[in-house]
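User: tokens in, sequence out, please.
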């Protein structure tokens, strides 16, 4: 009974970290919702791969060919490599450094990792590169070719 309560409180605490705080500044969304959705899909696939390595059991089988740590490492590295690729294909543009790091953080520490990386970028705005200036061609008025 104690384990069930502890697990319920852990899940509740993890979801409590997703609540937005009150902020008087302008609301800017730094990570596209499509990027987050693709990260969730790839993370679910990595979780399924982790459980498939243990014959779909919750308790890790010590006689299995992989240890628990090796299986977690393989699926985390696979998720970290695959999630930016999938997100780039879904969004149709190059990802920002923040978006790519949030995806990788979510693969290393599920649910909380991306939130921690996003908070770190908010606390250190100098980490993000400045947007490149785009040169606009001048149109000459009155002259026709």
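Assistant: Sequence out:
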């Amino acid at each position: 009974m104690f384990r069930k309560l502890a697990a319920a409180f852990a899940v509740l605490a993890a979801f409590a970290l997703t609540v937005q705080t009150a902020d008087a500044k302008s609301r800017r969304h730094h990570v596209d919702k499509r990027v987050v959705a693709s990260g969730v899909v790839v993370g679910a696939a990595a979780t399924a791969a982790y459980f498939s390595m243990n014959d779909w059991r919750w308790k890790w089988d010590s006689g299995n060919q992989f240890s628990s740590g090796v299986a977690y490492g393989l699926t985390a590295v696979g998720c970290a490599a695959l999630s930016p690729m999938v997100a780039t294909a879904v969004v149709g543009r190059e990802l920002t450094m923040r978006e790519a790091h949030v995806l990788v953080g979510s693969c290393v520490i599920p649910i909380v990792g991306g939130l921690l990386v996003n908070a770190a970028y908010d606390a250190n705005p100098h980490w993000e590169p400045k947007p490149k200036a785009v040169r606009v061609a001048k149109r000459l008025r009155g002259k026709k070719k």
